[in-house]
Amino acid sequence: MWPEIIRLSKEGGLDVIETYVFWNNHEPERGQYYFEGRFDLVKFVKTVQEAGLLVHLRIGPYACAEWNYGGFPMWLHFLPGIQFRTNNAIFKNEMKRFLAKVVNLMKEERLFASQGGPIILAQVENEYGNVESSYGQPGELYVQWAAKTAVSLNTTVPWVMCAQGDAPDPIINTCNGFYCDQFTPNSPSKPKMWTENYSGWFLSFGYPIPYRPVEDLAFSVARFFEYGGTFQNYYMYFGGTNFGRTAGGPLVATSYDYDAPIDEYGFIRQPKWGHLRDLHKAIKLCEEYLISSDPTLEKLGRNLEAHVYYKSSNSCAAFLANFDSISDARVTFKGNEYFLPAWSVSILPDCKNVVFNTAKHPAENAFTRSTSTHEVSLATSDWSWYQEYVGIWGTNSFTKSGLLEQINTTKDTSDFLWYSTRYVNQAVILEKLSNRNKW
């Protein structure tokens, strides 16, 4: 499925494919690496390159809570004295070894940009800033170590840490969230980057199916570039399926559809895919202006503003924004009047003509809609299934007093740990004994 999904991504206006690297898949046993089949990372990166796109490799190796055990291999849990994601020598040694393995694999295949490859960015750790305070000073030391270790691997491309406000130079701290237009990196020498713009949310058992309107998603993207953003990634553009037992917590379902522009099964989701494609076209029409200067702010009224990018005094591109969530507005900009629906951004690549508004349907914008007619031939494959019995089964029962820690007991061979107990009604026994004495 990779080539077709990548093709649809490119046709939708993407330039870069961002992917996690799951440690538990690639080192299922300590020192035994696996990069074959659907875990062939080199083939995946080369497939992206063949499509003419670039790669952001998020090595981590911590991935996220939605993946089983955060992406850590289970054998790591049982190393004596280990503590995860902190200033612990055992953990750091294993993490460095895996980081080096992945980086060297990419170098050997000449896949970093400086080698003529598609990889332009790499990521170490993942959203550690959300939990760092719980670790105290050892957490701060761990961040410093992770940054130093990443740089020492000499990828020759920039490293990022997402949601990590204290990322040390030269690591770039990036934003994750639904809106990142107000985000500022921790150094003026670092570009403003957005590694996770949530196209929806993950599905949890027992909860409604997540949904994010494309108009709001497009608004967030336009506002980000309006405010000087340089790199924005959809999380997810394609989420797919958590096959087998790969889903993590809390209660994450097997579907990782995420209300993404390409749905769980690899099909285009309209109007989201098409609306974003047209947004990308509009932003790229402004590209030469976006890289020529910082934006100049012009107030147009209450909750109304313009950001203008000048290439020269009489050549510019502009973003006109109405960030009032209720009221539409009419504004005057450079002598012309424009209508701005509530919670929307209009893009003017020549500071005059609106080619796209984030709140308007595709037919109302300057770009025409086209439908892909690319024929896809999928190889036939047999269905497979797993029969999981309900209740106690097998011969590995044992007796223990009290509750057990799940992972230490099952070693992640099952999601279930069945308890059975036997109790006797003491009152009934006493009554029977009393009656027996009477007899």
Automatic annotation (TrEMBL):
Residues of the Beta-galactosidase beta-sandwich domain: 305-360
Reactions catalysed: Hydrolysis of terminal non-reducing beta-D-galactose residues in beta-D-galactosides
InterPro entries in alphabetical order: GH, GHD, Gly_Hdrlase_35_cat, Glyco_hydro_35_CS, Glycoside_Hdrlase_35
A biological-process GO annotation: carbohydrate metabolic process
Location of the Glycoside hydrolase 35 catalytic domain: 1-282
Keywords, ordered alphabetically: Glycosidase, Hydrolase, Signal
Enzyme Commission number(s): 3.2.1.23
GO MF annotations, alphabetized: beta-galactosidase activity
Domain of life: Eukaryota
Enzymatic class: hydrolase
Family as reported in the entry's similarity comment: Belongs to the glycosyl hydrolase 35 family.
Name of protein: beta-galactosidase
The species this protein was found in: Linum tenue
